[in-house]
Amino acid sequence: MTDVTNSPLTVAGSRRRRFNASERQVALMRHLVLMSFALIVLFPFFWIISAAFKTQIDLLMGKIFFTPRIDGFLDVIFDKTSDFARNFGNSMVIGLISTFLVLIVATLAAFSLYRLQWPGWVLHSLLGWSVIFHMVPPITLAGAWFTMFRSVGLDNSYTGIILAHTTLHLPMALWMMGVFVRDVPKELVEAAQIDGAKVPQILWHVVLPIVRPGLAATGILTFIFSWNEFPVVLVLSQRQTATVPLGIGKYAQENTIAFTEMAAASTLSILPAFLLLLFAQRFIVRGLTSGAVK
């Protein structure tokens, strides 16, 4: 009589169960590790948001359980001595306009470099120079920009800050858009040229629809970098053109630090980037993964 416990089917089934169990354990460990890293990354945000709803005394005493209050938000938004609403509007204007300019210049430059048959040394020289420029600390350029803008009447102006932000973030955008424009099939561009399309028509009707995810990813990253820029705006701006990072820094005075108001302003400053990432997440993922895979 055949021993059922040693039959090939029984042995294969037990091995499959052990394999599935080990797979589940590995998946569980992977999720635990990812959750641990997520908590480490998100803890500062939770701490800042909770601090925004505390009083100064509760915050200094380190209370974990407290009665939430919105006095910090009211002081930041409605207090007559607070400029945070103006700072918020300045950051929005500067970020949107500089991002728009960066996308236009980076897209045109990437299309020119990869589709208009420039010599190889021009392409590599420009990309190499953009990497070197991107590695230069922005604060080292701020003094020269301040002197130059003051000589032409652009000191403490939106135009000067927008031009500075555009210059700072253009190298990163050029590299990102270069990846997407380079991966546009040459056959599509050549077919459009055979049909008699001019360069602006090829760019508008052929290239832009294909690189739209890349435009979204590049635009969102550029806006976030512009929104968080601090040292350049510290040198180039005054009270009328100060942005959100400067507005947050003003709550740290020489003799006292308004921790609650600073936490409230920091919480409000997170909202634009959070909303962008929330509504455009699929475009960012498509754009970044598309460029990486190709």
TrEMBL record:
CDD domains recorded: TM_PBP2
Compartments where found: Cell membrane
Superkingdom assignment: Bacteria
Coiled coil feature spans: none
ABC transmembrane type-1 domain sequence ranges: 88-280
Keywords: Cell membrane, Membrane, Transmembrane, Transmembrane helix, Transport
Membrane-related topology note: Multi-pass membrane protein
PROSITE patterns associated with the record: ABC_TM1 (PS50928)
Transmembrane segments: 32-53, 92-114, 126-146, 158-181, 202-227, 262-280
Pfam families in alphabetical order: BPD_transp_1 (PF00528)
InterPro entries assigned: BP-dep_ABC_trans_perm, MetI-like, MetI-like_sf
Family: Belongs to the binding-protein-dependent transport system permease family.
Protein name listed in UniProt: Carbohydrate ABC transporter permease
Organism expressing this protein natively: Paracoccus onchidii
